[in-house]
Write a structure and sequence with these properties.
Layout: E1 8-12, H1 17-28, E2 32-37, H2 40-51, E3 58-61, H3 67-80, E4 86-89, H4 104-131, E5 135-140, H5 153-173, E6 178-185, H6 202-210, H7 223-230, E7 241-244
Parallel strand pairs: 1-2, 1-4, 2-3, 4-5, 5-6, 6-7
This protein binds NADP nicotinamide-adenine-dinucleotide phosphate and D-gluconic acid (GCO).
C-alpha cells in the first residue's frame, strides 16, 4: 500500500531542503520525480544530488506564484513525463519581521508564495487528476498553521490559511478520489531556519529545550509522512494536518531535568 510505482510526483521547490528529502523518499517508493525552481542553475545543481542516489529527476523552471508560468511548467511535465498523480506544494519562504516594521509588499510576497501558489498549482493539476480517477495533494503546512509567534505574522497567516485551504480541497475534491492533506513539520534544519539555528541563538535554545526529542528535525524525518500521504495507505485520510515535530506541540513547557519538576 506504500508502493508508488508508476506514479508521477511534482515537488515544488524540490531542489534542496525538505522538498528534496520528500522527493527522494517518494522516488524510493517508486515514483517518477519532477521538481521546479525559480532558477535554472539550482535545478542543474540539484540533478547531481539526485543522481547520487540514482534518481533521474525531471526539472522545470517556473515561478509557483505566476499562473501563466505554472500553466506552461505543468504542461511541460505532462507532455514530457506524464500527468501528475502526486502534488507536493512545498515551495515556501519566510520573512521574520515584526508587524509594525513589515512593508505590505513583504507580507504580500509571503502570502503569494506560501498560500496563493498552492492554490494556483493545485488548480492547474487537479482537473487531470479528476479525469483519471483521483490523486494526492500534500500541502507543506507548519506549526505556524496553528500557532503564532513574534515576527512571523505573514508566514503564520499563510500557513494558517493553507491548513484551511487543505480542508477545502478535501471538501471539494474527495468525491473525485483526491486526498488533500498537510504535513506540519516542527523545527527542521534547512536553509529556512539557518538564521535561528546558530549555537547560542535564543531560538536555538528554545527549540532544543521545548522539543521533547531534544534536537532539531532533519528533512529526512518527514519522508515517512510524505510517503504515507502520497500512497494508497492514506486513501481514507483527507483534510488532515499531520504534524512531524519531535513532540514539541505536545509539550506545554520546558523539558527540564528528570526530577526538577517531579514534586
Ligand atoms: P528552503 O530550503 O528555503 O526551500 C524552499 C524552496 O522553495 C526552495 O527550493 C526555493 O527555491 C523554493 N521557492 C521559493 N519561492 C519559490 C517560487 N516563487 N517558485 C518556485 N520555487 C520557490 O525551505 P525548507 O525549510 O526546505 O521549507 C520547505 C517548505 O517547508 C516551506 O514551505 C516551508 O515553509 C516549510 N516548512 C519548513 C520548516 C522548517 O523548519 N524548515 C518547518 C515547517 C514548514 P530557491 O532556493 O530558488 O529560492
Ligand atoms: C520560525 C521557523 C518556523 C519553522 C516552521 C515551524 O521562524 O519560527 O522558521 O516557522 O520554519 O514553520 O513549523
Amino acid at each position: 500500500m506504500f508502493d508508488l510505482t508508476g506514479k508521477v510526483a511534482l515537488i515544488t521547490g524540490g531542489t534542496h531542503g525538505i522538498g528534496m528529502a520528500i522527493a527522494k523518499a517518494l522516488a524510493q517508493a517508486g515514483a517518477k520525480i519532477c521538481v521546479n525552481d525559480l532558477v535554472e542553475e539550482r535545478l542543474v545543481a540539484c540533478k547531481k544530488s539526485y543522481a547520487e542516489v540514482s534518481i533521474d529527476v525531471f526539472t522545470v523552471v517556473f515561478d509557483v506564484t505566476n499562473e501563466e508560468d505554472v500553466d506552461k511548467g505543468i504542461g511541460i511535465i505532462e507532455s514530457k513525463v506524464g500527468p501528475i498523480d502526486i502534488l507536493v506544494n512545498n515551495a515556501g519562504i519566510i520573512k521574520r519581521i515584526p508587524i509594525l516594521d513589515m512593508p505590505v509588499e513583504d507580507f504580500r510576497q509571503v502570502i503569494d508564495i506560501d498560500l496563493i501558489a498552492p492554490f494556483i498549482v493545485s488548480k492547474r493539476v487537479v482537473p487531470s487528476m479528476i479525469s483519471r480517477g483521483g490523486g494526492k495533494i500534500i500541502n507543506m503546512c507548519s506549526m505556524m498553521s496553528v500557532y503564532g509567534r513574534n515576527s512571523v505574522s505573514a508566514y503564520a497567516s499563510a500557513k494558517g490559511g493553507l491548513k484551511l485551504l487543505t480542508a477545502n480541497m478535501c471538501c471539494e475534491w474527495a468525491k473525485h478520489n483526491i486526498q488533500a492533506n498537510g504535513i506540519g513539520p516542527g523545527y527542521i534544519a534547512t536553509s529556512q531556519t539557518e538564521a535561528i539555528r546558530v549555537n547560542g541563538h535564543p531560538f536555538n535554545n528554545l527549540v532544543m529545550t521545548r522539543t521533547p526529542a531534544g534536537r532539531w528535525g532533519d528533512p529526512e524525518d518527514l519522508a515517512g509522512a510524505a510517503v504515507f500521504l502520497a500512497s494508497a495507505a492514506s486513501n481514507y485520510v483527507n483534510g488532515h494536518l499531520l504534524f512531524v515535530d519531535g513532540g514539541i506541540l505536545a509539550n506545554f513547557g520546558y523539558v527540564a531535568g528528570e526530577n526538577e519538576l517531579a514534586e
